[in-house]
Design a protein that fits this description.
By secondary structure, the protein is α/β, with parallel strands linked by helices. 38% of the residues lie in helices and 17% in strands. Helix 1 packs across helix 2. The longest helix has 17 residues.
Length: 316
């Protein structure tokens, strides 16, 4: 068994705040670690996942000023579960507004899963503002990736869990599961909405790690978490990430070619399979590429966490 480095100890924010980013939305943010350290923004997954404590633990708190924020509609941002004015480009604008408000010239950007999507599109939009780009469990939000996990692919590995995910949707609508879920997650029948939100969230949670985690699956079934997570994810996916074309992030990767970076991927990631990380590696060969053989998707996997810490220490 490979020896892994432990995550940095749990820390609490030294400052929290709220930033009004539109007439409708206000985002919650927090700062941890060293107020005079190297600035880094850590992006949570989902979309719709919200800040979780382990995201504070990939950086040396003595060396880094660690900034996290709840993206629109989730966590402690308001209004909760709101889909209006909630697109990839709104979140990119929110990151820029937060950077300016905090008085930061350039910052490291780290994100996993959907956080890798948002981190990459932000860096492609504002490359001059990114000191380093660290992407874990790469998700390029292409049609093929969505079909793999939500339609026909991952269910071959998790047929029992996939059956439960399909259960709320009538058989006649199962040819397009994302559209069928979207109809119900934006509908007015609260009981159906919550049942679908739980099913969507539990399906994803079941597949996140190499070994099952019952506590995480139970948390995914919580009504409040599932409501925002499933609604916002499905909203983004039915709109193909609000990108101008399929594969936009790969086509625009030339914009980040000179940014020091790292791509970190679990070999047995079922949620965002290695093909996406490999495609990004081929398009961005200057970035450090780390394949972790004993890992699935989530950043709590010991192998992924260990490599992330090695990378952030090197960039500090």
């Amino acid at each position: 068994m490979t020896a892994h480095r432990l995550l940095y100890p749990e820390i609490e924010p030294y400052r929290t705040g709220r930033l009004k980013v539109s007439d409708l939305h206000e985002i919650y943010y927090e700062e941890c670690g060293n107020p005079t350290g190297k600035p880094v923004v850590v992006l949570h997954g989902g979309p719709g996942g919200g800040i979780v404590p382990f995201l504070r633990r990939f950086h040396n708190p003595r060396a880094y000023r660690i900034i996290l924020f709840d993206q629109r509609g989730c966590g402690r941002s308001t209004p909760f579960g709101e889909l209006a004015e909630n697109t990839t480009w709104d979140l990119v604008a929110d990151m820029e507004a937060l950077r300016k408000m905090l008085g930061i010239e350039r910052w490291q950007v780290l994100g996993g899963s959907w956080g890798s999507t948002l981190g990459l599109v932000y860096a492609e939009t504002y490359p001059e503002r990114v000191s380093e780009l660290v992407l874990r469990s790469v998700f390029l939000l292409r049609e093929a990736e969505l079909r793999w996990f939500y339609q026909d692919g991952a269910g071959w590995l998790f047929p029992d869990a996939f059956e439960a995910y399909q259960a709320p949707i009538p058989e006649a609508e199962r040819h397009d599961m994302i559209a069928a879920y979207h109809k119900r997650l934006t509908g007015k029948d609260e009981a159906i909405l919550l049942a679908c939100a739980r099913a969507w969230s539990v399906w994803e949670s079941t597949c996140l790690s190499l070994l099952p985690n019952k506590e995480r699956i139970a948390q995914a079934a919580d009504d409040r978490f599932a409501y925002a997570f499933a609604r916002i994810e499905c909203h983004y996916f039915v709109n193909n990430g609000f990108f101008r074309e399929d594969g936009q992030l790969l086509k625009d990767v030339w914009r980040v070619k000179d940014i020091p970076g790292a791509i970190i991927q679990g070999r047995y990631d079922v949620v965002t399979p290695m093909a996406s990380a490999w495609a990004l590696h081929k398009a961005w060969p200057k970035a450090r590429f780390e394949l972790v053989t004993e890992a699935g998707h989530t950043g709590t996997e010991p192998g992924l966490a260990s490599v992330l810490i090695n990378v952030t220490d090197a960039f500090s």
